[in-house]
Specification:
This protein has 684 residues and is mostly helical. It has helices spanning 2-15, 22-37, 56-67, 83-94, 112-124, 142-154, 170-182, 197-207, 226-433, 435-672, and strands spanning 46-48, 74-76, 102-104, 130-132, 160-162, 188-190, 216-218. A seven-stranded parallel β-sheet has the order 1-2-3-4-5-6-7. Residues 33-43 and 674-684 have low confidence and may be disordered.
Length: 684
């Protein structure tokens, strides 16, 4: 059956004109080897393709092959990342499959289209009992989640469903709750680590009032209040208790009906056995007379046959001894082959270890080289930062000099003005005292004033020129600072780009090396698996040969024993023939006495038969009374179940009222307390 599935898969790939993936063929061959190796009562019916990268064509070919397959009962396809297209191609064939009971699609990046395809599978496939959809994104879009919910509602065979980590929000959860109201077979549902929230939790709590088959519902990590989770757990527990009561009631009814049928059948069988024994005893008496005469003739013929068998057994002994020698030679050859395979395996492991050590050394060297380059670039960056700090300090000193020159200029101007005012005051005083001298010296004073003014103007021009030069120098320094900062920024950008390129190169080299290592490890693993298979096959052949040797030895011993027994029988047959004649005469006498006793026993049996009939009537009356009593107990249990349902409904109404009151209180509290705009709510 397994080879037929592989051949069908290859034929579909050939018809669709694409090459089958080597990894899939390797796993199919590995499963075939495991099935051939497991002959001790264990049959593997699981197709495990987990963590295999499957293309859309491969998924389509697998779906077509599984559509008509009748061997596999479990299909594992976890962490294959087939996507919506691969799931559509695969499930198109699984819709018509009737033997797969467990399907694992964990971690396959299924989204909206995948949810629709899974819903179609659940609507049309009525053989699937376990379905795992963990780590997908089926609940992102509520419109695409509706086909999945409708499929769950229409399904009549699914018992366990795993929807962990599927981003199911409150709208999708309410659709799922509506679907669960119509489902009557699902008993375990796992919805952990989604975003169902308060609204979705209430919808699921309300759906359990209509669903009486769900016994386990896991809701951890969904931001659902604890009181709702407790109510859901209580309703699930009530469902399980109700189902247990119904199953115990059904088992009791079945046991009672089976006991009644067994009693009736036993009574009928006892009566028929009595009649059959009486009839057979009359027939056996006539047969025994014929059998004794025929047996004497057979004993004589058996003696002649045993003589011929003795000769044939001696010939078989010789042939078996020759076969034993050949098998011993084959065992020695197999042992030599095993030693060679072990040596080859050790050489392969040593070679692979050397390659791994070399690759690790190359990786360490590249990492040290990159570390040195990074330290050099960091040192260069530090030097540039030092230069920029020096230039900034130089610019500050120049600005301080400019400020000092400006202060000196203002001080000199003030001194000049003071000198001018003092000179004018002196002139006015001397005018009153020495008008004559002033007239003579007015020219000298005017010339002195002109000289002072000219010197003042010259000093002002000099100071202005120095200030202009200082400002030009400051501008040059600022331009140099700008250039240095631009160079520093450019160097930092280039340094960061070089770092990014170096990191990318390192990552690419590490990825390439990891891929190469993985390929080498796969090759080593494949060679190792092949060697293990050869080793297991050779070990199996050795065990078979050893079993053959033991069987041959046992047969030789049995043949020897048979020879001894035949020799003893040949010696004792003559004495037995004489004893049998005497025994036949004695048996005839005994059988005549037994027949007389049997006639008396038949009369006694008739009396027993009449008593048994009376006991049968009494037991039927007793069973009818017990059945009526059991029916009364069943009715009382049904009344108790109704009362429990009524009490549960009351408790649910009270819990709903409490939840509404809590919600109203929370809403009033939230509306009454102003929320600060800077504070954000913490995620649970």
């Amino acid at each position: 059956m397994e080879s037929a599935f592989r051949d069908k898969f290859l034929q579909i790939c050939k018809e669709n004109h694409f090459q089958p993936q080597e990894s899939i063929l390797g796993q199919l061959d590995g499963s075939l080897g495991d099935i051939k190796g497991s002959k001790s009562g264990h049959t593997a019916t699981t197709l495990d393709l987990s963590t295999s990268s499957l293309s859309a064509g491969t998924c389509e070919a697998l779906g077509k092959a599984l559509a008509t397959d009748h061997y596999y009962t479990e299909f594992k396809l976890s962490d294959c990342m087939i996507g919506d297209e691969g799931a559509k191609a695969l499930i198109q064939g699984l819709v018509s499959n009737t033997t797969i009971r467990s399907l694992d699609l964990k971690g396959n990046n299924l989204r909206g289209a995948g949810a629709e395809v899974v819903g179609r599978l659940l609507r049309h496939n009525h053989a699937l009992k376990q379905l795992s959809l963990e780590w997908n994104s089926l609940g992102l879009d509520s419109s695409s989640f509706t086909p999945l919910a409708e499929g769950i509602a229409a399904n009549t065979s699914l018992q366990e469903l795993d929807l962990r980590s599927n981003q199911i929000h409150q709208d999708s959860a309410s659709q799922l709750a509506k679907a669960l109201c119509r489902n009557s077979t699902l008993d375990t549902l796992d919805l952990r680590w989604n975003t169902i929230g308060l609204v979705g939790g209430r919808a699921l709590m309300n759906c359990l009032q209509h669903n009486k088959s769900l016994q386990k519902l896991h809701l951890a990590g969904n931001n659902i209040p604890q009181d709702i989770i407790n109510a859901i757990d209580a309703s699930c527990k009530n469902n399980s208790d109700r189902l247990n009561l119904s199953t115990t009631h059904q088992t009791r009814e079945q046991l009672l009906s089976r006991d009644i049928r067994q009693v009736k059948q036993q009574r009928k069988l006892e009566v028929t056995d009595l009649m059959r024994r009486i009839h057979q005893q009359g027939e056996d008496i006539g047969r025994n007379e014929k059998n004794f005469i025929h047996r004497i003739r057979q004993l004589q013929e058996a003696l002649e046959e045993r003589k011929s068998a003795f000769n044939a057994i001696s010939a078989q002994l010789k042939s078996r001894e020759a076969e034993l020698e050949l098998e011993q030679q084959q065992c020695s050859e197999y042992k030599d082959d095993l030693e060679q395979t072990k040596q080859e395996q050790s050489m392969l492991m040593k070679h692979s270890n050397e390659e791994m050590h070399h690759i690790k050394q190359v990786k360490i060297e590249s990492e040290s080289r990159l570390a040195r380059e990074i330290t050099e670039l960091k040192d260069k960056n530090f030097t540039l930062e030092g230069r920029s700090l020096d230039l900034e300090q130089k610019n500050g000193r120049l600005q301080e000099q400019v400020y000092e020159l400006k202060e000196e200029l203002t001080a000199t101007q003030a001194e000049v003005k003071l000198q001018a005012t003092q000179a004018q005051e002196r002139l006015q005083k001397e005018r009153h005292k020495h008008q004559d001298a002033q007239r003579e010296q007015s020219q000298q004073h005017a010339s002195a004033l002109a000289r002072l003014q000219s010197t003042n103007e010259e000093t002002e021009q000099n100071y202005k020129e120095r200030i202009q030069r200082q400002e030009e120098h400051r501008r040059d320094v600022e331009e140099e600072l700008r250039k240095v900062k631009g160079q520093q920024l450019a160097e930092q950008v280039s340094f960061e780009e070089q770092l990014m390129l170096a990191k990318q190169k390192v990552k690419e080299e590490e990825q390439q090396r990891s891929h190469q290592l993985e390929d080498r490890l796969r090759m080593v693993q494949l060679s190792k698996d092949e060697l293990h298979q050869q080793y297991s096959q050779q070990g199996h052949q050795i065990t078979e040969n050893q079993a053959r040797l033991t069987n041959a030895n046992m047969e030789i011993e049995t043949l020897k024993r048979k020879l001894q027994e035949l020799a003893q029988e040949l010696a004792g047959k003559n004495s037995e023939t004489e004893a049998t004649v005497n025994q036949v005469e004695e048996r005839y006498k005994r059988q005549i006495g037994q027949l007389k006793g049997q006639v008396q026993e038949t009369d006694q049996l008739k009396d027993k038969y009449s008593r048994l009939e009376q006991q049968m009537t009494e037991q039927t009356r007793h069973h009818q009374s017990e059945l009526s009593r059991k029916d009364g107990e069943i009715l009382s249990l049904q009344d108790q179940v109704r009362r429990l349902d009524f009490e549960m409904a009351q408790v649910r109404d009270e819990e709903a009222q409490r939840a509404n009151a809590l919600q109203a209180a929370i809403s009033t509290y939230v509306q009454g307390t102003p929320r600060s705009p800077m504070v954000t709510p913490r995620k649970l």
